[in-house]
């Protein structure tokens, strides 16, 4: 038997499963890096031809520059490691996230798989986010307001173009120099006094200030909002300011209108969802502005969301996550993460969100949140996880998932001392079915037996197909006596459904069941339990098959 096939559940079945998932491919390699199987369409769409790759090594089918990068990663996988990396397609039009994983069979690495997922759309979304951030930066660079920052020693550390223009200096002439060295003494004195008041109080403050405009020679009357700048430990390390020339109020009004129009254009045309919410004194958050991209993501119009609060549009199961995010952003901590929203037609939207805190002119707290729809990515992740967790033929849990469930059951037994049982089932005479009636009949019989076993078990029981004709079962909260009763029912279920006919010939199977208790203290060990159940199962076979045996300490006790 091919050592890779049982691990993957069969080439045809896996290919059929992956064919339904767009932009995903799996390459199966043996220990010589020879391609055993290729499933999915992601790689084929960009120059990799299925029929030419089977039986070839990666070195033979990959461009040299690609092979040089993949070879050490593949070797790591064949050494038992799992490695994730990104690479471009042959035509350079797509980007893939790929994972090399070892294929383990009977405790040894029998090969490796390279799973590739097309993340071109994800990369494009990230680029759009960067572009949106660039647009916001452009707004600051072209703002008619002077925006600046100085440290506690009055040295300039930030100055936008408008600030430099008023002072008649270049950025290089300002940054690192003191206020008194860049502004006439009679002007710098009252500006420094205003800075001192803000640094002393630790509060935002506004001032009317007179500043000479080097471009015209006129002294301009400006309104300045100044605020303390704090470090991560909440220590004041400088002062920030925004100054608006209010000498000519009509001109200011026009510039403000232009700035508002520019912001609204950037906000409305942003390719990602954006929401502005007001934080009330009681901690509730109300939407006061949202752009078309966010409303469309929820299948609504922007006007429908105004005045809404978080619990109305956030999935009920994610309200605790939303609350933690709000607490973090209000406390000045990082708060990005995933949230599910409710679409107008009832389905869930999973979004990557990045909220940040700001303040309005009157000091009210505002939260600006960006959101990117990642629902499709999450759907693909779930489908891939389902493929990994389920046996492709019977739909039962896979060997890998069963190992995880057994480890969890052992942990529960250690912590709480609850009884449990592990059952190992091996079909008697299954090889004769394959030899006599063919593998198609064998597969049909395995599926039928899987359904029969599952029909007599509880929802809390864990049933898996762990090999060709091997099944395993975890019975939580079950002592040995009750497990023996279940074992007898399993034997009877296989006896009742274990025969099949094809081409005028018939064949059938029975089952031998080995049971070991999952109980005890810290000495409980997954590997030991598997060995014990395996010994009991072989004892059942050696005692005549079609029966149950229970592992009891140093020996086994057979039962019918």
Describe this structure in words.
It is a single chain. 41% of the residues lie in helices and 30% in strands. With 560 residues, the protein is of the alpha+beta class. It has four domains: 114 residues, Beta-Lactamase, CATH 3.30.450.20; 130 residues, PAS domain (Beta-Lactamase, 2-Layer Sandwich), CATH 3.30.450; 89 residues, PAS domain (Beta-Lactamase, 2-Layer Sandwich), CATH 3.30.450.20; 170 residues, Reverse transcriptase/Diguanylate cyclase domain (Alpha-Beta Plaits), CATH 3.30.70. The chain has a six-stranded mixed beta sheet with strand order 17-18-16-21-22-23, sandwiched between helices. It starts with a helix and ends with a strand. The relative contact order is 0.06. About 1% of the residues have low confidence.
* Structural class determined from secondary elements: alpha+beta
Strand content: 25-35%
Number of helices: 21
Please, what is the CATH homologous superfamily of the largest domain? Reverse transcriptase/Diguanylate cyclase domain
